[in-house]
């Protein structure tokens, strides 16, 4: 089990917090969207992840569109629905994810879809990132976010 590192800065109406943790790929199902053996080519991926640390969310739902530009490099975009807790606050939110991959690994940026926060995460705004070398057991993420003061 990993522990999250969290730092916070409060302004008059919001608190800006940076938190960290890890996630694991629970399931990855990819389907071709263009003819095999051609480059560039497209694929769709349905993914489930489990987050721990600052974000605690089991069995997320994620859909990616992947553009393979070569055999080991390309780009992707997707949306991930997370239900769980963010530093102890319960709710649901959606992350827009954009990234690239190559022989060294995967780089991805994350951004909360405006208006997607529910429950104690209503009004959530935030961005994050991760880098993943190929085939790790889990991936470290960093997430900086703001929530309205209660």
Describe the fold and architecture:
There is one protein chain. With 150 residues, the chain is mainly β. It is 0% helix and 67% strand. A hairpin with a 5-residue loop joins strand 5 and strand 6 (74-86). It is elongated. The two termini are 30 Å apart. The mean pLDDT is 92.
Q: Radius of gyration, rounded?
A: 16 Å
Classify the secondary structure makeup into a structural class. mainly beta
**Order of strands side by side in the largest beta sheet?**
2-3-5-6-7-8-9-10
Q: What do the pLDDT scores average to?
A: 92
Biggest beta-sheet profile: 8 strands, antiparallel, barrel
Low-confidence stretches: none
How do the helices and strands follow one another from N- to C-terminus? EEEEEEEEEE
What is the strand tally?
10
Can you count the helices?
A: 0
Calculate the terminal CA-CA distance, rounded to whole Å.
Answer: 30 Å
Number of domains: 1
Based on Cα principal axes, name the global outline: elongated
Looking at CATH, the homologous superfamily is SO1590-like
Brief overview:
The protein is mostly beta strands and 150 residues long. It has strands at residues 6-10, 14-32, 41-53, 55-56, 61-68, 74-86, 89-102, 105-112, 125-132, 139-148. The protein has a single domain (7-148), classed as SO1590-like (AOC barrel-like, Beta Barrel), CATH 2.40.350.10.
Descriptive key words:
150 residues; mainly beta; AOC barrel-like; eight-stranded antiparallel beta barrel; 10 strands
Strand and helix map with partners:
Blueprint: E1 6-10, E2 14-32, E3 41-53, E4 55-56, E5 61-68, E6 74-86, E7 89-102, E8 105-112, E9 125-132, E10 139-148
Antiparallel strand pairs: 1-2, 2-3, 2-10, 3-5, 4-6, 5-6, 6-7, 7-8, 8-9, 9-10
């Amino acid at each position: 089990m990993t522990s999250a590192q969290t730092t916070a800065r409060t302004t008059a109406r919001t608190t800006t917090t940076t938190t960290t943790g890890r996630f694991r790929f629970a399931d990855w199902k990819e389907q071709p969207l263009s003819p095999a053996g051609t480059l560039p080519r497209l694929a769709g991926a349905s993914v489930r992840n489990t987050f721990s640390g600052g974000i605690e969310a089991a069995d997320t739902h994620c859909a990616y569109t992947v553009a393979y530009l070569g055999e080991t490099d390309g780009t992707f975009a997707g949306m991930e629905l997370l239900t769980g807790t963010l530093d102890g606050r319960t709710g649901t939110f959606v992350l827009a994810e954009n990234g690239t991959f190559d022989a060294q690994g995967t780089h991805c940026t994350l951004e909360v879809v405006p208006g997607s926060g529910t429950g104690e995460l209503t009004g959530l705004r935030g961005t994050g990132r991760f880098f993943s070398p190929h085939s790790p057991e889990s991936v470290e993420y960093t997430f900086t976010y703001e929530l309205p003061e209660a």
